[in-house]
Amino acid sequence: MAESTTRGRPDHNDGPGGHLGTEPLVRVDHLRVEYPVNIRRGWRTTRRTLQAVADVSLDIAGHRTLGLVGESGSGKSTLGRAIIQLQPIASGSVTFDGIDLSGLSYHQMRAVRRGMQIVFQDPYSSLNRRMTVSQLIERPLRIQRVGSAASRAKRVTELLDLVGLGTSMAGRYPIELSGGQRQRVGIARALSTSPKFIVCDEPISALDVSIQAQITDLLVSIQQELGLTYLFIAHDLAAVRSISHEVAVMYLGTIVELADADELFRRRLHPYTKALISAAPIPDPAVQRSRERIVLTGEQPSRLDVPVGCVFASRCPFRRELCLHEPPPLLTARDGHRVACHFWSEIENGTHLPETEPQLQEGLR
Amino acid sequence: MTSVAPVGPGPGINDDAGGPLLRISDLHVSFHSGGRETVAALRGVSLDVAARETVAIVGESGSGKSTAALSVLGLLPRQRSSTTGRIVFAGRPLSADSPQMRKVRGAEVAMVFQDPMTALNPTLRVGHQIAMALRAHTDLPRPAIRRKVLELLTTVGLTDVANLAAAYPHSLSGGMSQRVVIALALSCSPRLLIADEPTTALDVTIQAQILQLLQQLQADLGLSILLITHDLGVVAEMANRVFVMYSGKIVESGSVGQVLTAPEHPYTQALLEAMPRLDRPRGTRAPRRDARSRRPSPTGCSYQGRCPISTEQCAIEPALLPVGEAHWLACWNRGVASDRPSSMESTDG
Hints:
Number of strands of chain A: 14
Largest sheet of chain A: 8 strands, mixed
Largest interface: A-B, 41 and 43 residues
Strand content of chain B: 15-25%
Number of strands of chain B: 12
Radius of gyration of chain A: 22 Å
Oligomer: heterodimer
Strand content of chain A: 15-25%
Largest sheet of chain B: 8 strands, mixed
Shape of chain B: globular
Shape of chain A: globular
Helix content of chain A: 25-40%
Strand order of the largest sheet of chain B: 6-7-8-3-9-10-12-11
Distance between the termini of chain A: 49 Å
Number of helices of chain A: 12
Order of helices and strands of chain A: EEEHEEHEHHHEHEHEEHHHEHEEHE
Number of helices of chain B: 12
């Protein structure tokens, strides 16, 4: 397990300890997250609920990285925030390190929070610009009342070193830092309480490619050094594949496919995953211009009107009558590969063809 | 060692029959704020775009790629910037304050901006915004303008256009807004479309739709496209030729095939190596080479602080010189540049 010396345990500890072995570090069970929204039509305001995450179940094993991909509005960030209880959940449960988080009191939750942290997408807005780098990194430790001032200062120095920032950075303000340096501060802050689990919510999306590579490498080396577990949320498929052990694909609040990273990119089964991967351009004109591409028509529907059947039915080239009425469950297609599609096997062996042929663009080769 | 890099119009220019549609020669742009500090955003950029061609400018943030695009249309803030150099469009010189600019901008040269949500006026109906462009540049009667607006919205792949024309921008999704922005750009039948990161704000599946639309429009209308992007994947998909910018200068240019598959400049190589790729096995990305300095060097080759193969010679600025057929490079260590990185590549698969 992770070397988490300063990590505190909650006052009470119900359920099994959930230490090593088969028990996942994070278990999400039938999680549902809803947002209330007000819809104004003229003078009338109606209150509706928007379902951001619909019945998601997944496990994240210790020391592993689960990549979570999906387009904007798919609910991936909401899911990440709900797992670490930054977002109230409507139903379902999250178990972290053997502790069911739903029943915890404020103080119990606070203690558990040391074990789970988050790195935000935008390093410009996620750092308080009135605080110096060392204050920012020390902040979680002060909130958690960990150690003395001297030991916290020592920890800040350690963390700066760990994320590749010199101690000369300690007194600087965020405005003096570049995007990559800011994201390193964000990572150091997340690491300050020696967590076991970190939600990385699009940590590289706002950065230039060369900086993206540096931050990705940093996250991987820290994971190996400290034995961390990540939920890595991103929309960039190539980045997700490079860092993740397993990848989950989300669409409209639902996980449509979940598999080992290499397996998913080699033998994607869900039509949405296929379209998503084929839409990510490859920086080689010969490859890019000759590969098979699926250009989806239409856009992700509004989550206020979540379809009755399969969430992807409105854009799916393989759609059949059944898909419009019956939501497909996330079932195991083969070992370690789950997919939510009624026709995945027929699509794979070619007996189920798209209804609308022109959407599929065959390459020149 | 005493040779000074020759500066002049010429490098990177592709002289095809009939001359290019757009030619930028030795463009310098600097920004000054409060008089104290001057920032050189472009330092002698020359490029050209032929008719019906797609040319991409790639680079990271701060490389000057958007400044180059904005300067073509004279959209840089006049009080806070100074521009020198020549921009010739269809044989006529263009400058920010010339009376010609108002005729050309929005009509013969149109622009698609990065963020479709802020490119449209939120207080005006979509159709009205397109009609405004038509009224400014043509003398069509009202009913004809209305017909043309609906026709344009149909051209960019939108449906239910009558209702859409009456809608306000906030009710549209990102992909729909970008289609409207493209319709707006096409309203006066431009010959050149400048697209500044047209798909960066969009999801990948929507990006695929918009790129497909741009390609189709180019084929149908014979447009030239100057594409500004940071995404080499988009370049591979769209462009015929590519100019790689670093710190206000073009460091490499050539056909997309040459530059993306056999890059010669260490910066182009680093950009490509930094990208994880879906068509290659995991873990084959070359290990990153730690930069000694992240800031562009003020003198000499601006990449020398980050360059793994820099030598003393790099204290002198290298000129952009031809290294192959229509392939231009600004690097002293050409042979080394193509040998060394391959030996540094690891295949820890």
